[in-house]
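Please check this protein record:
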Amino acid sequence: MPTGVLVRAADGEPVRAAAPGGGGAGTTGESARGKHVMGEHQASGPAVCGPVTSGPAASGEESAGPAVCGLTEGKYARVERERRFLLDRVPAPGSVTVARRITDRYVDGTRLRLRRAERLDTGECTYKLTQKLPAPPGTPGAVQGLITNLYLSEEEYARLLAALPGPELTKTRLSVPPLGVDVFEGPLRGLVLAEAEFENAEDAETFVPPPGCIAELTADQHFTGGQLARTDREELRGDLAEYGVALP
C-alpha cells in the first residue's frame, strides 16, 4: 500500500497518510489540451522525471535538497506533487472529517498567494503567505513546482491584505482523506474539484481516484487557483463544456 499520499490538515498543509485500496494504475485517458477523462484507457501512467541529483545550495546559509525535474528543494521550499480531478458531486457529509472556508488572494504581478482559512467547526483561523514557483513547461507527471509557506499572525495578514491587490476566490474545502475537495462560490459556484498530494512519483502514478471523478485536470492550467481567480462564469462554462459538464 502506498504511504506517500498526503492528506491536507486543517490549515491546508499536507500531512502523510496511507492511500486507501492499494496502488493499481489509474484508468485515465488523455484528450485535448492535456486533459484526462475518467473511464477511458491510458496506455501508460504519467512520465517519471530523470534521476534525482543533488542541486547547488540556494545560499551560503541554506543547504539545498535533491533536484527534481530541474527544481531544487531548499530548507524552506519543497517540491509539490499533486493530481487534480473534476467531481460530479459534493461528497456526502458523513465522509468529511474537517471543513473550512478559504479565501485566497492572488497578488498582482507576483507568484504569491495570501490565504485565510477558517475551520467551520471551531472558528479557528490560519493565515499564510505562499509562493508557488511553477515547474518548467513540459515537466511530466504530477510535479507542479516549488511551494514555500510563511505563517502569519492575524495582524500581519490584515496589513498585507490592505497593501497587496489582486483577484480573490472563495471556497469551502472538505477533507475527505486522502483528498481535499474544494466547493467554489461566487462566479465559480457549481465547480467541485478534488486534489491529492504525494511525496514521490510512484505514489502519484499509482493513485486510483475514487468514484465520482469525471476527469483529471492535473495538466489543465485553466483549473489552477491563480487562473480560477481570474475566470468569470462564462469562461468557466466553456471550460467545463469540454468535459461534457453543464453548470447548474
About this structure: The first helix runs from residue 154 to 163. The radius of gyration is 18 Å. The chain has one domain: 5-45+58-241.
